[in-house]
Amino acid sequence: MAAKVKVHWLIDKCPKPQDCGKCLEVCPSTVFVLVATDRERYKEPENWVIIPSFELFCTTCNKCIDICPKDAIKIEIKEAE
Ligand code: SF4
Ligand code: SF4
């Protein structure tokens, strides 16, 4: 069976992803999504997280890891059982 890819984004190393966003731009498979965690009507959100929502499409090209200045992304390859 094919290996399964798990993409981890580490919030401790990237507390303000909205100020960078390089991983979002570089990923050819659009794996990452930037999401506001404090959404209120008529108010600009201040807190954001990156969710690797589409890790299923990750090709393990490592472009996100290479471009990340904070070492905040890890790719884990799990052999399927
Ligand atoms: S390894 Fe490549 S395909 Fe996978 S999340 Fe990073 S940039 Fe996207
Ligand atoms: S490239 Fe790294 S530092 Fe920049 S938003 Fe993505 S995870 Fe955060």
Given the C-alpha coordinates, what overall shape results? Answer: elongated
Report mean pLDDT, rounded to a whole number: 95
Q: What's the alpha carbon Rg, rounded to whole Å?
A: 14 Å
Indicate the proportion of strand residues.
15-25%
Describe the structure.
By secondary structure, the chain is of the alpha+beta class. It has a single domain, classed as Alpha-Beta Plaits (2-Layer Sandwich). The chain has 2 helices and 4 strands. The longest helix has 5 residues, at 22-26. Bound molecules: iron/sulfur cluster (2 copies). The site of one iron/sulfur cluster (SF4) has 14 residues, from helix 2.
What key attributes describe this structure?
single chain, about 80 residues, alpha+beta, Alpha-Beta Plaits, two-stranded antiparallel ribbon, elongated, binds iron/sulfur cluster
Give the secondary structure arrangement, pairings included:
Layout (H helix, E strand, L loop, with lengths): L3 E6 L12 H5 L6 E4 L11 E4 L11 H5 L5 E6 L3
Antiparallel strand pairs: 1-4, 2-3
Bound molecules: iron/sulfur cluster (2 copies).
One iron/sulfur cluster binds next to α1.
Short précis:
This protein has 81 residues and is α+β, with helices and mostly antiparallel strands. 12% of the residues lie in helices and 25% in strands.
